[in-house]
Amino acid sequence: MGTNGSTMLEPLRQGLPPVDPTAVSGSASCALPARFEAVRGARSFTRSTLSQWGLDGRFDDVALVVSELVTNALRHALPDDTRPGAGGTGEPEASVRLHLMRWSTRLVCAVRDPSEDRPGGSFTPERTQENCDLESGRGLFLVDAYSDSWGWHPLAGRLTGKVVWALFMLHE
pTM (2 decimals)? Predict the structure, then answer.
């Protein structure tokens, strides 16, 4: 299947609507440091990648979702000593990774982090009102509102952590 963490993202692919994984027309990923400035870097990476793919018109929605997913990973999914502002040195190899994948009719952004905890705790789309005041709930509410669908999966094999993904349908 090639590079860019294809085995790491296998649970993600299995959870998406049926799609031929060999039909991926574009795939890009970047490691993000355990600093809140990483959100800006993730947005910049998303802008350049979408531009290369001719999808500039989708940048605003996708960048908002990427920002929320990366912020949640940095704030809630890193070990205490590597969280931004925790005074730790952070890990030399980033624990958070952003993946962008494009098929002809869909775009997926996925953020991998080392935590096995469910994103947003008890957030579900049906419980939006009561979670709207909670930071993680509000972030996932935005992800739910701006993407066509989203979900998460634990990583498979010897990898620990999870992937939180959001799907955007592309209309050609």
Answer: 0.74
